[in-house]
Amino acid sequence: MKRNSILNYIQNAKKNNQKLLAILLDPDKISLETIPSVVQKVNESSANLIFIGGSLLFKNVLDDFVQIVKNNTQLPVILFPGNAIQISDKADGILFLSLISGRNPEFLIGNQVVAAPLLKQTQLEILSTSYLLIESGRETTASYISNTKPIPRHKPEIAMATALAGEMMGHQLIYLDGGSGAQNVVPSEMIELVATNCLLPIIVGGGIKTKKQLNDAFENGATVVVIGTAFENDFNFFNNL
Length: 241
Ligand code: 1GP
Fold this sequence. Notes:
Number of strands: 8
Order of helices and strands: HEHEHEEHEHHEHEHEH
Radius of gyration: 16 Å
Helix content: 25-40%
Strand content: 15-25%
Bound molecules: SN-glycerol-1-phosphate
CATH class: Alpha Beta
């Protein structure tokens, strides 16, 4: 994978008003043996990207997991790490996240400092990403583990100001996330307010389990929508979309 090819792909999608679907695979939820059949389902779906990661991984299998996924798909494979130890040079790229909705220095810059020299030794495409956790009904693993408060869901203007700050800091992407398995999806008006004020492509995820929720996120300005839990619960999920 060439430098900037994933970023260019996402930027072009935004420019041409194309919508991209990313499937999130959590190495704790899928055994190594079942990856080929699961990825086959992804290949048959309308997915454009594969994300791999989780806020907290219990199995130490990331390298093997990524390699087997790569062996079974042509789609770009992008790490979505919960911390600095979730690095594998077998992927094509990594969301280099800064959790700017929070005020925990470890997730604003600490993990990034630990990861940077290791990433420098890989061929991974680095996708500098403003990561915003949005309150979604009950506490999520991401918010608990990062020890940060998500942005209140009835405060779209705070999300907009935060995303603008990320854009001004030079990030390349904005990720609005309710957290995996979120009870409520990121509110439409919040996506829309961020999209109308920021130039960067927007990734939206967390709790999306219906076609309407998927389309709402796209219609309100998301360029990439991420689906994890709904697919994990039913590997035929995309057949019904
Ligand atoms: C979580 O945005 C991702 O960080 C996907 O969420 O697992 O709820 O689809 P779900």
